[in-house]
Design a protein that fits this description.
Pfam families: PASTA
Keywords: Membrane, Transmembrane, Transmembrane helix
Structural class: alpha/beta
Low-confidence stretches: 31-40, 48-123, 519-523
InterPro entries: PASTA_dom
Protein name: PASTA domain-containing protein
Number of strands: 23
CATH class of one domain: Alpha Beta
């Protein structure tokens, strides 16, 4: 094909053109005018076109040798071509232009080139681009390079989205790691161990550091639990140590369960040791461990406050108001109570520190709170037994009269509650027992009309219940009087001491009346 195209380059182009024109002129003289072809002629024409198309080839730019060879081959083959079909039935290629080129691109139909040696009427030829193949290779090279770049960018973007760089967390707080893993979608596994050199919850080691890890993967870190609490700690003598020295020792030994408490003291200088206590009494200083709780007390010195708190006037206000103010201002309050005819129960009557007086914290004050109107126990010796209840000032009174050898009848003997005792509204009030005198006991004559069975009741009701400890003794005598009747008394119809014992004779009833002497009362 290259030889054929060479006939159309350079000086051979005009010669080749003339030869083609002569061949066309000869063909036109031999062939009759065009007639309509039957179905068979059309079929043979299509077959010849296919054969011609099969011989089409593409090649580089024509040279002189290829053009000469193609013309010679065309002469030998012209006869065979004319035998296959009529010259006017040959298909000639038309000159390509931009319009035809665009149409061929749109319809995607290949351009058919008919060799000059197979055509009797070749008016024009197609000139091919020798750089076409290089451009095509270059085009596919760019496409391939673009695909590689796109895939690389996609993979890079995917990698960036699915991977995250793990910072160096060693020496940092565990909370920072938890926050970072939560925000970046990384799982976290924490393994904790005791480490004296690291504070609690500080990262000791991590499996991945300053490298990228895929999201969803697990990051393993070792976190410190601090110093071992089971480790024994040798306690020093804190007494000669100052507060600063004690704090330094605790920090060095990481004995965090040993708390330092500073207290004010009026006797121990500030910063000096006060006392040491282990909370668990079963733990001794010799077997103290880091986990054991203890308290170390140091003095803050004497507390001095400035008197800058003005004292309010609490008169007429409630006790709760005063105590609340005192608690807020760190004032100690002592409460006393007193009855009052003017101030109601629960209200303040007076205060020990006057209004607007400046006081300091920790000072003390006394307030007097009213218990209301008091009920005062009167002096019942000034009243008779009949007047006692009406003079009780609202108190309950129980009046009694008892025998008394020394106090005359009707006179006051005693009262159960002391004179002048006060009872407020909130107090439980007792029943006051007031006793007046019956004087000395008087024994009646019980002979001939009293039975032995009535003596108990008579002596209790008449004497014993009224304060006289008068008792009796019985003996039995022969008598015609009905059996069990009192026939004799050692004392009767007279005043007797309150602790007397009366001898009483009881009739046996074993004698007949005629055997007795005339009936008369025996003294």
């Amino acid at each position: 094909m290259s030889d054929f195209l060479s006939n159309f380059s350079g000086d051979n182009y005009e010669k080749t053109r003339q030869e083609k024109m002569e061949q066309k002129h000869k063909v036109d003289k031999k062939e009759p005018t065009k007639t309509k072809k039957s179905g068979e002629q059309l079929a043979s024409k299509e077959q010849s076109i296919k054969e011609i198309n099969s011989n089409v080839s593409y090649g580089p730019k024509n040279n002189s040798e290829n053009v000469t060879q193609s013309i010679q081959e065309g002469k030998t083959n012209s006869k065979s071509v004319s035998e296959i079909e009529n010259p006017e039935e040959l298909i000639y290629t038309k000159k390509r232009n931009k319009k035809k080129k665009n149409e061929s691109v749109k319809t995607e139909e290949p351009v058919v080139e008919i060799p000059v040696n197979q055509s009797k009427n070749l008016e024009e030829v197609i000139e091919t681009d020798p750089t076409y193949k290089k451009k095509k290779i270059k085009k596919f090279g760019y496409i391939g390079l673009g695909c590689i770049v796109a895939i690389s960018l996609f993979y890079f973007g995917y990698y960036q989205l699915t991977h995250v760089k793990v910072p160096d967390f060693e020496g940092k707080e565990l909370s920072e790691v938890r926050q970072w893993t939560t925000e970046n979608g990384v799982k976290l596994q924490v393994e904790q161990k005791y480490d004296f050199a690291k504070e609690a919850n500080v990262i000791i080691h991590q499996t991945v550091k300053n490298k990228k890890i895929k999201k969803g993967k697990e990051l393993v870190v070792d976190a410190s639990l601090g110093a071992d609490p089971e480790e024994a700690v040798s306690l020093p003598d804190f007494k000669p140590m100052k507060l600063k020295e004690a704090k330094g020792w605790i920090s060095e030994q990481k004995a965090d369960n040993l708390a330092i408490i500073e207290e004010y003291s009026d006797t121990i200088p500030a910063g000096d040791y006060i006392k040491f206590e282990i909370t668990n009494k079963d733990v001794k200083a010799e077997n103290y461990k880091r986990k054991d709780k203890a308290k170390l007390y140091y003095s803050k010195g004497k507390e001095v406050f400035e008197k800058d708190i003005p004292m309010p006037d609490f008169a007429g206000k409630t006790k709760e108001e005063a105590t609340e103010w005192a608690k807020k201002n760190d004032i100690t309050v002592k409460i006393e109570e007193s009855d009052s005819d003017k101030v109601e129960n629960g209200k303040i009557i007076s205060q020990s520190i006057g209004k607007d007086t400046k006081v300091a914290k920790r000072e003390s004050m006394t307030i007097t709170v009213s218990t209301g109107k008091a009920l005062i126990v009167p002096d019942f010796s000034q009243f008779t037994a009949e007047e006692a209840e009406s003079k009780a000032n609202g108190l309950q009174v129980q009046v009694k009269q008892l025998f008394n050898d020394e106090v005359p009848y009707g006179r006051f003997i005693s009262q159960s509650v002391e004179i002048g005792k006060k009872y407020t509204e909130k107090d439980e009030k007792p029943v006051i027992q007031v006793v007046y005198s019956f004087g000395k006991p008087y024994i009646k004559d019980l002979r001939d009309n009293t039975l032995e069975g009535d003596l108990q009741k008579i002596f209790y009701d008449e004497y014993q219940s009224k304060g006289a400890n008068i008792t009796y003794q019985v003996y039995y005598v022969d008598s015609t009087v009905t059996k069990g009747t009192v026939v004799k008394m050692s004392q009767y119809n007279e005043f007797i001491p309150s602790s007397s014992v009366v001898q009483i004779g009881i009739s046996k009833g074993n004698l007949k009346p005629e055997e007795n002497k005339p009936s008369q009362k025996e003294e």
